[in-house]
# Entry
Amino acid sequence: MNPTLTGFAAIAMWSFLALLTAGTGEVPPFQLLAMTFAIGGLAGIASWPFRQIDRQSLRLPPLIWLIGIAGLFGYHFFYYTALRNAPVAEASLIAYLWPMLIVLGSALLPGERLRWFHLAGAACGFVGAALLVFRGSGLELTGSVFGYASAFACAFIWSAYSILSRTQKQASTDAVALYCLATAVLSLVCHLLLEETVWPQGGLQWASLVALGLFPVGLAFYAWDHGVKHGNIQILGGVAYFAPLISTLVLVLAGKAQPSTGILLACLLITFGAILASGKLSRWKATA
# Structure
């Protein structure tokens, strides 16, 4: 499968993150991370007997392990820290700077070149994401500096993880399973220190938790790793804004959000931004 399309699959799975998370009930964030990353990591390891994998490829330098574990755990740790110390809308919007940072940072990679349409497309997508995040609410910077700093840390950590993964193509995607298990252990430590345990109630909440672990917090990370290492990382950065868009549309279809003109405008902006970031408009102009 085309690596860029594999990256698109990760973005599609992340689009169901909000709906599935809501379906898990009152499970606290770090407990949820511990459980879902354990599912995602164990599911990856369970696939090894059915595939030919090079066990030697899992013997990676400490730097690669640091990049993988810091990327997965660091992003989620600072994301939930931001939500606890700043308004959800503002924190989420700042965290959504990561696709634009990927587009900008990818210009530093060997063989990559930043063009005007990459930057314009990412900026257009960011404006669309802003419309989705606020949806009628005003910008109120009422959170703490620590909360906003944590949100910025999210954006920088995930973009850095994605870009640095691109430079480590020799690292097997199978190692992501071990990153997930390490993230589960670190999340469990945070849960035990910071939260009270709350278990899902009923079959639907347990099913939502398992689906969350298998797909948005499991398979999506394997797909993203393969996509950023071997696909077009600038296009992936531009298209990443479809995640909040599809997530919002899924919530609307599920009856958990109301359709609005703002959502329609965000849809148009993000779609246009993705097309622009991919360079298709410039190619069509050149052809014409």
Observations:
- The two ends are 31 Å apart (CA to CA).
- The chain has a mean pLDDT of 87.
- The longest helix spans residues 202-230.
- Residues 67 and 161 are 6 Å apart (CA to CA).
